[in-house]
Amino acid sequence: MANSNNGETLKAIYVDNAATTAVSENALSAMLPFFRENFGNPSAIHNAGLEAKKALEAARTAVAKAIGAFSSEIYFTCGGTESDNWALRGICASKSKKGRHIISTEIEHKAVLNTLAALQEQDFQVTLLKPDGCGVIAPEALKNAIRPDTILISIMLANNVVGTIQPIERLAEIAKERQIIFHTDAVQAVGHIPIDVRKLSVDLLSLSAHNFHGPKGVGALYSKVPLVPAGYMTGGGQERGHRSGTEHVPGIVGLGAAIKEAAENMPAHTKYLVALRDRLIGEIAKIPQSRLTGHPTDRLPGHASFVFEGIEHSVYLINSLNEKGIYASSGSACSAASTDAPHVLTAMGLDTRLAHNSLRITLSADNTQDEIDRICRQISSIIPELRNRKTRKRTKEIVSSVFDNY
Ligand SMILES: Cc1ncc(COP(=O)(O)O)c(C=O)c1O
Predict the structure, then answer these.
(1) Which H, E and C letters describe the chain, residue by residue?
(2) Fewer Cβ atoms within 10 Å of its own Cβ: the N or the C terminal residue of the chain?
(3) What residue ranges line ligand 1, CB within 6 angstroms?
(4) Domains and CATH numbers, the chain
């Protein structure tokens, strides 16, 4: 990736890995044969079809192994959004006779929040739990929210905006004691932290390949509870009758290769990323009136997020970094282009003004210490410039209002 600025070509630094990651060499070379050489339809019974079917099932086994599930509990989808939709809508459809109350949190991704809003229109009731200042959901708050008609609890494993990791094992335990189905959106966590669905006691889990160096548009839903029979996507009956449509074989193969690779590299990558992340956090802490958001230690290995006082809006910071060849974001890929304050930060108690001034730097193992140092230098010089620009703008406004009134 290169960045051309005033005729000078700089090597760009990509640090927006929570938005998406580059497909790994391994995943790409695993996928390629399934576009042209082995392009068979996995439902066909000739050898070309059987080859594709074999690859599909090998990917299912790889996904299951990476999260401690059985292959029979893995369903392929077109990504995290679909997995979240399927989990929430599916459970509500099958359990609506038992009750219509769902518990989730204010800091979920829009794939969950907007699905819950749609379910509310169908007369489901939703309680959204508030996190503490570090973005953690207290088990006590969950206990207090449970009602006799609660049928589903959905709490994300790790947050996309601030990187906080939830105490899912304890939260899911509470659901289990009350025999309530527990779903977790693990899109940011899978491939980055160890996950064992049996140990965590979760009933459903969503994941997405493009968040751990697999391709975009492919994901999976783990479900150990029976899914609504044949009702989700009707047609030819693929995915054991649950999700019709010819499978995206190259993508699914890429998902399988990427999840296997991520699991193998996890110990080494975690150590490397935590060191880079903490170096970055330490340097940014030296900037006056800057603040780390999210939990100081219970956070994703490559995730650093901040807010800065007095910079007017993070879009100016993101643009200035972009001009220097540094690709970061303000917090959420879905809301980066909008002027809404990230809902996660306001839910954590930050005022709306400060929540607009957020920066998210999410690393991959491709990033280097030199890159971190270049990022820190640039941020340290851009922030005072933006603050000055604001002061100059205010002074200009005051002067012109004085003249207007003269
Ligand atoms: C926490 C979380 N959930 C869901 C999604 C949506 O996943 P996808 O982009 O695969 O639809 C994302 C996207 O990054 C996410 O961060």
Answers:
(1) CEEEECCEEEECEECECCCCCCCCHHHHHHHHHHCCCCCCCCCCCCHHHHHHHHHHHHHHHHHHHHHCCCHHHEEEECCHHHHHHHHHHHHHHHHCCCCCEEEEECCCCHHHHHHHHHHHHCCCEEEEECCCCCCCCCHHHHHHHCCCCEEEEECCCECCCCCEECCHHHHHHHHHHCCCEEEEECCCCCCCCCCCHHHHCCCEEEEEHHHHCCCCCCEEEEECCCCCCCCCECCCCCCCCCECCCCCHHHHHHHHHHHHHHHHHHHHHHHHHHHHHHHHHHHHCCCCCEEECCCCCCECCCEEEEEECCCCCHHHHHHHHHHCCEECECCCCCCCCCCCCCHHHHHCCCCHHHHCCEEEEECCCCCCHHHHHHHHHHHHHHHHHHHHHHHHHHHHHHHHHHHHCC
(2) C
(3) 79-81, 84, 109, 111, 156, 160, 185, 187-188, 208, 211, 219, 333
(4) 12-22+265-404 (3.90.1150.10), 25-262 (3.40.640.10)
